[in-house]
Amino acid sequence: MDTNYVSSYEMKAAQATLLKNVYLWMTVALAITGITALAVVNSPTLSSLLFSGRATFFILLIAELGLVWYVSARIMSLSFTTATGLFMLYSLLNGLTLSVLFAVYTRSSIASTFFITAGTFGAMSLYGYFTKKDLSSWGNILIMAVIGLIIASVVNIFMQSAMIYWIITYAGVLIFVGLTAYDTQKIKQMLANQEINEQTQKLALLGALSLYLDFINLFLYLLRIFGDRK
């Protein structure tokens, strides 16, 4: 058998395994987030401990942001075990902060929005994986759009404009739908022609973190549209 064919086959098999791990780790992180959020909601002691004052919530939020920035920036210098542990810790912290959603929206609308998000995310991830179109040009546009979204959201905290709120909401959905396709294609390309080792496992973990963040943000913006407030 041609050794080049064997090498090509092995590379494709390695890419398939790494991509499977991307979605596996993303799914595990989402499960940890959801289970943690439900645990907080179903425990009056935890709820009162975490949300007795704004300070605790903002400390958790800052810890989250710091942790996700650290993992994203330093993942290649961390051990795979440490990087995985920090990713799971981040998903747990995210579950703590997202538990506040149950105080705002009904459980049924949160559940239905989750399935809407899963369907939308799945469709766009499949598009990003199978499309022959090069989506790399989307990257800078989408990153600038996210920055604009953050600035607009901060400004609207003070303006309290309903119109700006809904513009941000629908723009957020479009941006993270686009990012899901873009990140999927980028991850697929990043893991092409790679062997399975600690470094490529960390690349796959970083990909899982990117898709996890896309899913969570898409869910939050869709919840604004489909969520039934209490």
UniProtKB/TrEMBL annotation:
GO CC terms: plasma membrane
Taxonomic superkingdom: Bacteria
Protein name stated in the entry: Modulator of FtsH protease
Location of the protein in the cell: Membrane
Record-annotated membrane-spanning stretches: 21-41, 53-71, 83-104, 110-130, 137-158, 164-182, 203-223
Family designation: Belongs to the BI1 family.
InterPro entries per record: Bax_inhibitor_1-related
Keywords annotated in UniProt: Membrane, Transmembrane, Transmembrane helix
Membrane topology: Multi-pass membrane protein
